[in-house]
Amino acid sequence: MHEMSLCENIRDIIQEQASADGFTRVNRVWLEVGPLSCVEPEALRFGFDVVMRGSVAEGAALEIATPAAEARCLACGQSATVQHLYDPCPNCGTVKMQVTQGDELKISKLEVV
Ligand SMILES: [Zn+2]
What is the pLDDT of residue 91? Predict the structure, then answer.
């Protein structure tokens, strides 16, 4: 389950931020999870609670936002909003779409004490 290692990355980023900015508790974490990131939000929530134990974000609430994904057609150059990897181009029907946004996972905001 790669959500576990993603949560470990998130924890490390939060810990680094905590030492840099001098906060000791995180109440809430906002994540942006691209719809094409292959991340299961439920698995992420589960992993989050487990992995954050003993860190500054122990017990923090997790808010997951899913922004729209965008891809550009390699055949005709058209950009479009896509829901799935391998969605065909709405303009020409080619399935050679290159994802330009929506396959990433990032921390968008932290509520700290
Ligand atoms: Zn196209």
Answer: 95
Q: What does the buried/exposed string (b/e) look like for 19-37 if buried means 16 or more CB atoms within 10 Å of the residue's CB?
A: eeeeeeebeebebbbbbbb
Distance from residue 74's CA to the centre of ligand 1 (Å): 7
pLDDT digits (tens), the chain, 113 positions:
589 999 999 999 999 999 999 999 999 999 999 988 889 899 999 999 999 999 999 999 999 999 889 999 999 999 999 888 788 999 999 998 999 999 889 999 999 98
- Ligand 1 center from residue 88 Cα (angstroms): 8
Query: What is the set of domains in the chain, with CATH numbers?
Result: 2-112 (3.30.2320.80)
How far apart are alpha carbons 18 and 12 in whole angstroms?
10
> Coil, strand or helix: which one is 15?
helix
Instruction: Give me ligand 1 centre to Cα 80, in Å.
Output: 9
Between the CA of 81 and the centroid of ligand 1 the distance, in Å, is 12
pLDDT of residue 1: 59
